[in-house]
Predict the structure.
Amino acid sequence: MLDNALITLVISTLIAGEATAGIPGTPIAAAFQSTRQGVNTKPTAYIYKIGDRRYGFTRRDDVWDEAAGRMVHTETQQYETTFQLSALATQNPATPDQYTASDILNLCASILQSSTAIQTFEAQDVGIERVADVRNPYFLDDRDRPEANPSFDFTMTHKQIIRSTSPVIEKTEFQILTV
């Protein structure tokens, strides 16, 4: 599975589980978008890819396709892709019932590990391997107020499948030459 398809699957799964988790309508955006100006004023979760790890060896298969009259060569590589999900939610002492950024991420972690999400991932031949602990560092915002920027990492498993075909040999010619 390619990156954009995997990110889309994760985002759509999180959005589908938001209502059940109690955070309906929370935007999930790709982090570090070049067109974004400033910080979202609404509590928002951000996703970005940390990296890929190839797992095991590449599997190679050759199968004859009768209908097309060609040999189909398939190479399959198992991958572990790690993402980070972070959140920003401005804290206001006047609204103590508002979810914190850490609350939003803990609920997102629950969504990713829910039975519904696992079934959604498995239907696409994707697995969720690990959801790490939520970290909660603080920084000074643009108003010189301390604000949390929690995050957690999670690892997905998926396959990269590359197929190619070989044409049929139409003509062979044998020559016996003397030396």
The mean pLDDT is 89. The helical segments are 3-21, 101-112, 115-123. The first helix runs from residue 3 to 21.
